[in-house]
Known about the structure:
Chain A is mainly beta. The first copy, chain A, contains 3 helices and 11 strands; from the N terminus they run βββββαββααββββ.
Amino acid sequence: MAKESEIFTVPARRGRAARLDKGQAIKVINTHGQQVVDFWAFRADDLGEFLSMEHLRATLEGIFPHAGCDLVTNQRRPILHFAEDTSPGIHDTLMAACDDYRYGLLGCTSYHDNCTDNLYAAMAELDLTPPECPSPLNLWMNIPVGPDGRTSWGEPVSKAGDYVVLRAVCDCVVAMSACPQDILPINGALRTPTEAHFQILT
Amino acid sequence: MAKESEIFTVPARRGRAARLDKGQAIKVINTHGQQVVDFWAFRADDLGEFLSMEHLRATLEGIFPHAGCDLVTNQRRPILHFAEDTSPGIHDTLMAACDDYRYGLLGCTSYHDNCTDNLYAAMAELDLTPPECPSPLNLWMNIPVGPDGRTSWGEPVSKAGDYVVLRAVCDCVVAMSACPQDILPINGALRTPTEAHFQILT
C-alpha cells in the first residue's frame, strides 16, 4: 500500500513544482473535475532532459498516452511510468502551453495568467530555471482530432476526484499548472479555472 | 513571375540550410517523390524564435498545415506563409526529428545518420548554432492518425517533382534534412533515402 503525503494545492490559475525521487509517484487530482492541468517533468540531474510530447508520440505510436505506458524524454528514455488513470483517458499531447502571446491572439489587451509563466514561477520556488517551456502533457485536456486532422477545443470528460498516478523512473522535478484558460471551454463550459491537488506517493 | 535561383541539392541522408530575406520564398522539391524532408525555420535576428509545431497546431486548429496558412513561431507569430503545395497535402507535425537515440531503439548498434545531427551540421555551414532542435515540419511524411489516436508510419503520397513553396514573412534561416530513415517505410516502401532539391524564389 502506497504511503500518501499530505495533499498539496495547485491554486486556480497558478503553478506548483515538486521533486520526485526515483520510485516515488505523484498523484495529480482533478478535484473539481473540469480542470486541465499542464504537466512537465525534468530530470533532476539535467533539466535539459525533459518529458517531450514529440518524442513520446513517436515511441507511443499514438497521440494519447494511457495508463501502463512510459512517458519519455527528448532523449527517448522513460522519465515517468503512467501507472494509473481513473478518468476516461482523454489527455492532450498536441497543444503548446498557453502564454501571454496566446491570450493576445484571443483578444486580451492586458496580461493574462498563463501556463508558461506558471511553469517558470513554480520552478523558481525550487530555485530552478528550466531551459525552456517544453510542450506539456495537458492532463484532461480534450482536443478531438477529426478524420481531416482538424482539432477542436473540447470540454474535459473527467469527473470530480479523477486522478492520474505517474511514477518516477529516475529522480526528477515535476511541475503543474492549473490552466488559467477562461476564454475557450477547455476547462469546462463555465470557463472558470479551478484549483487542483496532488500528493506524493512513496 | 517569381525569379528562381539555381537548384540546390539536399543530398540523401544530409541537411542543408539557407537564408531567406523577408519576401523571398523557398521551393522545396520532392525530386524522387518518396522522400521526407524535415524542415525548420528560425528568425534571422533571434534563433530562439523558431517555427514551432505545438504552437502551429493551436493557431491552425489542426494537425495538417496546408497551402494558404501561415506557419507560426514559438511566439505565435507568422514566420513563413505556406504559399503553394502541388502534393496532396499530407505532411506531419507530430513526430520529433529522428536522432541517434531513435535508431538505437530501432536496433542500430552503431551511429546512424539522423535529422537532428543534420540540422546542427547544416546550420554550422552558415556559422550558426540553433538553440535546440525544434520539432520539425516533416514535409511529405505520412503519419495517419486513427480515430483511437493511434498513429502509423505510412509511405508518402507525393509524386516525383511535387513541391511546396514557403514565403518568408521576416528574415529567417531555414534548414532541411533529407531524412535518413531506412528502417521504417516513411521514405517509401524501398526504405531508400534519396536526395531532394530546393530553389530560392525572389
